[in-house]
Backbone:
């Protein structure tokens, strides 16, 4: 009986920590991107948002559509990019969707559809880096694979934190302009990064949509943690690997967002009236 109670307690703690961490990431993304968009608007006006929106808004709205398909939601209406009409209502793109409220899978989908711009946007930037900056990307992936091998020998959650920090430092090192062989490709990547990161923030509608699937997602994570703890250490190490991958992935997106915000802030200092 004590074993079951301790397992339930550990599962609850791990689940809450995971959900809380995701919410913190979402909060940071929203704060950074709102500041970023504000700086772009002050420097370039509405044209700046349109120029970055040519990539950023399309990626943002397309991410919602992709996760709608994955979680079997019906897409009722969408517009990936509407620069002209946005002059009147401020909406540069949208995706309207619906689902079966009785389906647990589709309810979990609401959570992921809401935060899709962060997940898909980060994935898009990683893919762009792989295509445009293959050298730095190869270095990062080689280091990442090496760290994942180390994860098989961790003895405590603190060890996984150390691996996580090492991964972040490796990413930052390889994003330095001093390490780039093809500066033109680097500039193109910076533009893509700037445009995508400028539109990765979650709107009020995105957050409302995520909240409807929050409880279903929490139950799923709780069950996953409960089973992994019951099975034993091997399963827990596997879960830790997944968590390091997830948060490493999201941190990459956050790094891109911070770099973009810094560029926008410098441009605002130099050119804003």
Residues:
């Amino acid at each position: 009986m004590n074993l079951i109670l301790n397992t339930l307690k550990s599962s609850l703690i791990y689940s809450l920590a995971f959900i809380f961490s995701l919410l913190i990431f979402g909060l940071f993304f929203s704060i950074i991107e709102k500041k970023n968009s504000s700086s772009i608007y002050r420097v370039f006006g509405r044209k700046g948002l349109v120029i970055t929106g040519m990539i950023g808004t399309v990626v943002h709205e397309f991410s919602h559509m992709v996760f709608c398909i994955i979680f079997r939601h019906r897409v009722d209406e969408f517009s990936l990019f509407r620069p002209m009409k946005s002059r009147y209502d401020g909406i540069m793109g949208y995706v309207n969707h619906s689902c079966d409220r009785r389906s647990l899978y589709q309810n979990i989908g609401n959570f992921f559809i809401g935060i899709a711009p962060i997940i898909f946007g980060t994935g898009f930037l990683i893919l762009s880096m792989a295509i445009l900056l293959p050298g730095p990307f190869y270095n990062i992936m080689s280091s990442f694979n090496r760290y994942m091998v180390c994860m098989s020998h961790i003895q405590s959650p603190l060890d996984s934190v150390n691996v996580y920090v090492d991964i972040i430092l490796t990413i930052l090192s390889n994003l330095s302009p001093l390490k780039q062989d093809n500066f033109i490709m680097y500039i193109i990547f910076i533009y893509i990064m700037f445009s995508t990161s400028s539109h990765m923030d979650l709107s009020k509608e995105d957050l409302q949509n995520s909240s409807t699937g929050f409880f279903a997602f929490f139950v799923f994570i709780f069950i996953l943690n409960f089973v992994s703890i019951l099975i034993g250490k091997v399963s827990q190490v596997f879960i830790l690997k997944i968590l390091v991958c997830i948060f490493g992935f999201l941190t990459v997106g956050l790094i891109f967002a911070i770099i973009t915000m810094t560029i926008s802030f410098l441009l605002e200092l130099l050119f804003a009236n």
